[in-house]
Amino acid sequence: MNKSLALLCVSAALVFTACSHSEEKPTPASDFYTLPDSLARTLDIEPVRSCPMVNAITLTGKISFNTDNVVHVYPMVSGNINDINVALGDYVHAGQDLGVIRSSEMAGYSRDLVNAETNLQVTKRDLDAKQDLFKSGLASQSDLITAEANYKQAQSELSRSQQVLSINGGVSSAGATSVKSPISGFVVEKLVSNNQAIRTDNNGGLFTISDLNNVWILANVYESNVGSVHMGDSAIITTLSYPGKVFRGKVDKISNVLDPTNKVMSVRVVLPNPGYLLKPEMFASVTISNKTNQQSLCIPSSALIFDNSQYYVLVVGDQNRVQMRKVAIVNTVGNQTYIATGVNQGDKVLASQALLIYAQLNS
């Protein structure tokens, strides 16, 4: 009797323990989630496609002037510069006055012009007189030829004086000449201030003007990646200043030598700059990509979900049933991700609000 009671108690204890363990075990997440029709209509659902593989590397770069569209303004004469009416970053038009140089050289050029004009008037009167005397027989043909030669020399000297003044900016008054902008663009360097003495023999510039309608990105490629960059490759540029905004350009120059210190090769990307958003000296991230001859399954990058060190996508089937799939990715280039395993061509994946639906599927 006592033995039977003991066995009954042990059996009850085992049953209780088994029930307790069964209650503690978590319920597995559902493999499917059905999208309500009203929600499905608002989501992006994209097919899995076969795409040409694209190799991509990401480089660090710096925005620079397009030196083909940059003009350095140098002084044509020595003197003192005044009346500077532009500041760094100002937009100027071609021919606009940037400042005025007062120079003894310009005063000398102005004097030469006056002398040439006076000499032309004198030689013209002499020529007219010699022509009248020659007609009257009071002057020889030799005298007339000499007067004509003097007049032509005076014309040539006047033309030379005018050209010298024109080349040096012309004279406004009292030996002063205006410094004019040769192109329309932005003042990206201002190297002088009012009342500063300037000289033509010290190679010092006054202003640098750039139109900034297009800019260069100068990036460094490490030796191990040199073979991955080619002329004409597409480039995607992002900056800290404009999160989420993508600029697109192309590789238009590759250096043929490596920097001996850093062992990097310089590449140049040229791109348009609408609205002048990109400023020289900004840092940029440059992703350079080129197509290969291989094909791979691809999906929008927005369809990827990363959780527990694993990538997932949500496949949408019949009647808006959503299934979670593990995928192995090959590479991600911009808004496109290449898939090795986990989905088939023609499958439809959720490309918007994927993380929210994933959370619902796992709840």
Query: How far apart are the first and last residues' alpha carbons, in Å?
Result: 51 Å
Order of helices and strands: HEHEEEEEEHHEEEEEEEEEEEEEEH
The mean pLDDT is 83
Strands ordered across the widest β-sheet: 3-12-15-14-13-16
Number of helices: 5
Which structural class do the helices and strands define? Answer: alpha+beta
Helix content: 25-40%
Any low-confidence stretches, pLDDT <50, length ≥5? Answer: 1-30
- Give the DSSP E fraction (strand runs of 2 or more residues): 35-45%
Overall 3D shape: rod-shaped
Describe this structure in words.
The protein has 363 residues and is of the alpha+beta class. The chain is 26% helix and 39% strand. The protein contains five helices and 21 strands. It has helices at 2-24, 37-40, 104-136, 141-167, 354-361, and strands at 32-34, 45-47, 49-64, 70-73, 79-82, 91-92, 97-102, 176-180, 185-190, 196-198, 207-210, 214-222, 234-239, 247-258, 264-272, 283-300, 305-307, 310-316, 321-333, 336-341, 348-350. The strands form four sheets. Strands 3-12-15-14-13-16 form a six-stranded antiparallel barrel. Strands 4-11-9-6 form a four-stranded antiparallel sheet, with no helix packed on it. Strands 8-7-5-10 form a four-stranded antiparallel sheet. A hairpin with a 5-residue loop joins strand 14 (247-258) and strand 15. The longest helix is centred in the first third of the chain and has 33 residues, at 104-136. The model is unreliable at 1-30 (pLDDT under 50).
